[in-house]
Write a structure and sequence with these properties.
This protein is of the alpha+beta class and about 375 residues long. About 65% of the residues lie in helices and about 10% in strands. Among the domains are: about 140 residues, no CATH class; about 120 residues, Histidine kinase-like ATPase, C-terminal domain (Heat Shock Protein 90). It has a five-stranded mixed sheet with strand order 1-2-3-5-4, with helices on one face. Strand 1, helix 10 and strand 2 form a beta-alpha-beta unit. Helix 5 runs antiparallel to helix 7. The longest helix has about 70 residues. The two termini are about 50 Å apart. It is an enzyme of class 2 (transferase). This is histidine kinase. GO terms for molecular function: ATP binding; phosphorelay sensor kinase activity; protein dimerization activity.
């Protein structure tokens, strides 16, 4: 059977209600028994009992308002008067009082050394008083002096109880701090996720709207030159891009929600839709979501730029898996006329955005003329990111 650990409410019930109730019940019974039982040195016994009762009330009502020094003095009065009463009052429950006082000292005093000194002092007082009583007034029902020394032992129970309460309080505080830290991390994660979603949606729409703007600019230029049929075709392509952008946005949101992105399959579909040759080198392996999305957005930007600045040119895309990371290479040949079409000017911000995205995941991006045959033109974009 599994034992249930005490809860803070259970410990609080014991400290604030049960123990004080037991102590005051014992004091009340002793007060009732004093007039009818044998007392040795009755005035001293009654005085010790009054001091004991007052000390017990002060411990219960005013303990937290006292300074540490006064708390020690009050515990010493409680313990000393109870130990003094032990050999003087031969009542039923009077022997319990010094044991209760020792437990109170151990439970309430913050200093373990002070609690032990108070308990030791009470034991000595009880033992010395018992020796004197046994020597001056020998009785059959008296205590042995060495037995009176045991009245201080419950101080260890009190100290253990205080340590247990402190451990529970520390555990409660640690739990509260851990909960606050978890909530803070959850808020930070939510903010990061919102930023990531906003960035992804921005990139998806940015690519799509760039293509739409390019087609509309081309339609405007064609209409100005009297080529109305070709202008209409460009407008229809712009509409198709708009419809595709909505579908692409939905796919991006779905991928973000699922937190998964099958990179080779997604790139293969993108390449097929843009008439780009696609190859995968190496053994595909899982990559982080942010890394996969960075590769995807760079591929979209590179393909969009190839279509924009070199329409009709041959385009290839290669995804390579290495031991340390992955690389994406997008290469396009020169345009049919050797330069970008009319209205296809850009600001270069697309490259800046790609480099920023690569840097966020610890990668690098290089973009420039194709090295193999720079005289014929062409453009190469190469992204390298760690797994």
């Amino acid at each position: 059977m599994t034992e249930t650990a005490p809860t803070p409410r259970t410990v609080r019930f014991g400290d604030e209600l049960l123990r004080p109730f037991v102590a005051f019940t014992v004091i009340a019974v002793v007060a009732v028994e004093l007039p009818t039982h044998r007392l040795i040195a009755a005035p001293l016994a009654v005085a010790a009992f009054v001091v004991l009762a007052v000390a017990a009330v002060c411990v219960r009502l005013f303990w937290n308002r006292l300074s540490p020094g006064r708390q020690i003095a009050l515990a010493a009065c409680y313990m000393g008067s109870a130990s003094l009463l032990l050999p003087l009052a031969h009542t039923t429950l009077a022997p319990l009082l010094p044991y209760l006082a020792a437990a109170v000292a151990g439970t309430n005093l913050a200093s373990r050394r002070a609690a032990l000194l108070v308990a030791a002092g009470g034991s000595i007082v009880g033992a010395v008083t018992q020796l004197i009583v046994n020597h001056t007034v020998p009785t059959q029902d008296g205590w042995s002096w060495w037995l009176a020394l045991t009245v201080g032992l419950p101080v260890y129970m009190g100290i253990s109880n205080r340590d247990f309460r402190q451990a529970l309080e520390n555990a409660r505080r640690a739990t509260a701090e851990a909960r606050r830290a978890t909530d803070s991390e959850a808020r930070e994660a939510a903010l990061r996720e919102r930023g990531r979603i906003a960035r992804e949606i921005h990139d998806v729409l940015g690519h799509s709207l760039s293509g739409i703007a390019l087609q509309l600019d081309m339609a405007d230029a064609l209409r100005g030159s009297g080529r109305d049929e070709e202008a209409g075709e460009a407008i229809r392509r712009a509409r198709t891009l708009a419809v595709d952008s909505i579908a692409e946005t939905r796919r991006a949101v779905h991928a973000l929600r699922e937190d998964t992105l099958p990179l080779p399959e997604t790139l293969r579909l993108m390449a097929a839709g843009a008439d780009v040759s696609f190859d995968v080198l190496g053994d595909p392996a899982p990559v982080a979501v942010e890394t996969a999305q960075t590769v995807l957005r760079v591929a979209q930007e590179a393909v969009t730029n190839a279509v924009k600045y070199a329409p009709g040119a041959a385009r290839t895309m290669t995804l390579a898996y290495t031991a340390d990371g992955i690389s994406l290479t997008v290469v396009n040949g020169p345009g049919p006329d050797g330069g970008p079409p009319e209205g296809a000017s850009g600001t270069g911000m697309g490259l800046v955005g790609m480099r920023e995205r690569a840097a966020l995941v610890g990668g690098t991006l290089r973009a420039g003329p194709t090295v193999e045959d720079p005289a014929r033109g062409g453009w190469t974009v190469k992204l390298e990111v760690p797994r």
